[in-house]
Amino acid sequence: MSETVSHPAPDGMEILLKGIAAAPGIAVGVAYLYSKEVPVVEKKDIDASDVEAEIERLRIAVLRSEKELQKIHAFAEQKLGAGNAKIFEAQIMILNDLVLMEAVEKRILREKKNAEYVVYDEIGKYRRRMLESSDEYMIERAHDVEDVMNRIIRNLRDQKLFSRLEGESIIVSETLTPADIVMFSRNQVLGYATDRGGISSHAALLSRSLKIPAVVGLRNVTQHLVSGDMIAIDGYSGSVAIRPSAETIHRFEQTGSRFRAFEEQLVGLADLPAETLDHRNIELSSNIEFQDEVQFARVQGSAGIGLFRTEGQLIGRGEYPDEEEQYELYKHVAEGVYPENVIFRTFDVGGDKMMPGSIKEDNPFLGWRGIRLMLDTPEIFLSHLRALLRASTMKNIRIMFPMVATLEEIRRAQELVKQAKADLRSRGIRFDPRIKIGVMIEVPSAALLAEEIAAEVDFLSIGTNDLIQYVMAVDRDNSYVAPLFQQFNPAILRLVKSVIDAGHKKHVWVGMCGEMAADPLATLLLVGLGIDELSVVPSMLPEIKKIIRSVRASEARRIAKKALSFTSATEVNEYLVSVMKKRLPEIPLQV
Amino acid sequence: MIEQEVTITNRSGLHTRPAATLVKVASRFKSEFFIVKDGFVINGKSIIGVMTLAAEQGSTLVLRFEGEDEQEASSAILDLFQRGFDE
Question: Is A166 part of any domain?
Fold first, then answer.
């Protein structure tokens, strides 16, 4: 929930805002207002004698823009792989479009107008046409075109001060897409503050894994400042201060050092097992999306990867990578994780996640996403499965299907796995014939059918983000109803318990890979409910491990039993806070 | 002037990569090259123009070539479409 603590203040006065803590850390720095709106461009007449100089000015701005983009492209390629860097390639191609640039130059010559205006008007035509499309891919391309246009205009104005390439800044924006985060990670970004978005949005997940502090759901932070203002953000509690006083900065920094002191206590935990005092082992693994993150997860002491989001490879592109490109990625990840295991979740596109050539849906979260989409596009799914199977020769890959709602979906998906195996076999290509297949439990129907599902698969993993949103009927990214996104609602606790019990009845292990798995407040409860595996954002591994190692399995069971006796999320929350304060006062809680 | 109708066969349509190939090949020729789709005409040597077409698999385009090497240009471009841009 967010609220404006103080009323709009005159310039120069401190303003405190409260949003949702999306990625931990403290950042104090200069704000860069990242606006996706088209800049105000004035239409000006120029003298006939200045036309040549104006065209020269345009050429220099285009050259500079290209240089900037080349740098960004090189960085993205190195950090995120060639596939993810393609978005910038497209932008460079637009800058090199001779027909377009010739048209702009001709208009400057003929109409005797300033270059900013002609660029805005000429490129804007294409952008508008693309925006009229109902195709998600076209709309994304329209953003590319807009980005190119704004970049040229900024370079024409010689504005470099707050350009994306220079200086350390805190990005302030209405919303941020995963592609924005990827793009900004090129720079020394200190933090993010956004008007909209929730803790589970893709962008928030990404900034957590990149260890960049973020506060989202601030409603109107963009209206309270301009680029260049100072801003302080507290990604632990969700507080933000615009033009902060010395006192506020001091307070924020104290919070930060308290948390960092705790983080230091966690050093050394990486090599210890994640087990209770009486040696009940919990498989403590990581959720990641990029190959880069494997190393960090290892250093943090991760027992393998409990969730690899394969759709990371789709960021910023309009088509699925081909089988070969997928195979290369999966093989590298499997090698990096070996001898531990990695669970690849098959493409989970649709909903809030980017998706090639998508259609417009009234209710995307209730629409064509996850396994539904894959089963309807079997060619794409088969090449995806073949890529995964081919990468499985070291026998440390597991496959997991997202958004499953029915048993039939699982059977059809298993059938396609069989088909992919047969195909590889006939071509003499090696793979792990006994590859383990699991299902994400995130749709209420699947949670209720967990026992029947468990009878047909090798493991279950509870995806709490979607499960909570579907059970509570609340959009997790809508800050108006976000308080109803209650992971400790008794309905959720009972459902989680019943899924774990159902899995155990059929002798399959049950894990959790949603955000709840990484919440220190939930750890004792989940251990007590009998969870076998917790897959969390790598930065949270030591903290969660410390909690697991502090308790006996029997004590955890007692705590879980007590938690299950309450009738509201508030009571459960209060109880768990009191338990943690008593047992582990040094663990910072985000409440 | 040569005019020819083509149907897009590759799965992803005229997305960025095939669009780039198309523009690259077209730019090798002196002839003017226009693409007509649903009454909308764009310059086939302009990547931003081709991107705007939103031409997905199965859609039909009219290719128009005009210039001294229009014969060579049209056969090179047609070949690209027939090979599905090698996708």
Answer: no
- The domain total for chain A is 3
The catalytic residue among A73, A143, A202, A224 is A202
Residues of A within 8 A of B56 (CB-CB) are 135, 357
Which range, A142-146, A494-498, B74-78, is most confident? A494-498
Pair type for strands B2-7 and A533-536: unpaired
CB B26 within 8 A of CB B44: yes
User: Domain B2-86 has what CATH class?
Assistant: alpha beta
Q: Min CA distance, A132 vs chain B (Å)?
A: 10
Query: Does residue A269 lie in a domain region?
Result: no
A71 and A25 belong to one structural domain: no
| B4 CA: distance to closest CA in chain A (Å) | 22
| Beta carbons of B46 and A86 less than 8 Å apart | no
Which member of B12, B27, B48 has the closest CB to residue A94?
B48
**Nearest C-alpha in A relative to B26:** A99
Parent domain of A64: 48-156
Q: Is A82 helix (H, G, I), strand (E, B) or coil?
A: helix
**Residue among B10, B16, B41, B87 with most chain A CBs within 10 A, to mutate:** B16
- Per-residue pLDDT of B13-55, as tens digits, reads 787 778 888 998 999 999 999 999 888 899 999 999 998 887 7
On the question of pLDDT at A192 being above 70, the answer is yes
CATH of the domain at A209: 3.50.30.10
Indicate yes or no: CB of A99 within 8 angstroms of CB of B16: no
ipTM metric: 0.89
Q: How far is CA A367 from CA A310, A351, A377, A489, A576, in A?
A: 20, 7, 15, 25, 35
Domain co-membership, A116 together with A232: no
Say yes or no: A134 contacts chain B, CB-CB below 8 A: no
Output the DSSP codes for A208-269.
HHTT--EEE--SSGGGS--TT-EEEEETTTTEEEES--HHHHHHHHHHHHHHHHHHHHTTTG
B25 inside 8 A of chain A by CB? no
CATH code of A109's domain: 1.10.274.10
Which residues lie below 8 Å from residue A390, measured CB to CB, with a gap of 6+? A327, A330, A331, A424, A429, A430, A431
Same domain, A230 and A316: no
Residue reference for tokens 């996850």:
A370
Which pLDDT score, from 0 to 100, does residue A11 have? 54
CATH of the domain at A308: 3.20.20.60
Catalytic residue among B4, B15, B52, B84: B15
**Domain termination residue (choose one: A230, A263, A296):** A263
Q: Can you tell me the distance from the alpha carbon of A579 to that of A551, in angstroms, rounded to the nearest whole number? A: 12
CA distance A315 to chain B (A): 14
CB contact under 8 A, A130 and B16: no
Q: Is residue A150 part of a domain?
A: yes
